Fold this protein.
Amino acid sequence: MNEVYEFLKNCGTYYLATADGDQPRVRPFGTIDLFEDRLYIQTGKIKDVSRQMKTNPKVELSGMYEGRWIRVSAEAVLDERIEAQQHMLAAYPSLQGMYQPGDGNTEVFYLKNVTANICSFTEPVKTIRF
């Protein structure tokens, strides 16, 4: 899990894919956090991505760093605890102008049933599951 966290953190921006009915949706994301031995992402309740993950929790993330790329398949699970929101926003102070723990809009999701593949053109694929 730590290796997946570090890879996504180093990417800066990675891409999150969700399903909207039968239409895939992909958007840039930048939040990734480790809290209580789980990998978390953050969004706003008012955003389509929130609704999409609640309707169909299967997500994929992809990003590149130093000539390698990562593909992560997982299920996103909403964690409504203020402590999880506080931890995420402490890790991303730049978001505190838009989000506050318990504001009714801030949402954090942890990833479960994760399969991550770290790939390159010159190395074998490394698969990590948690």
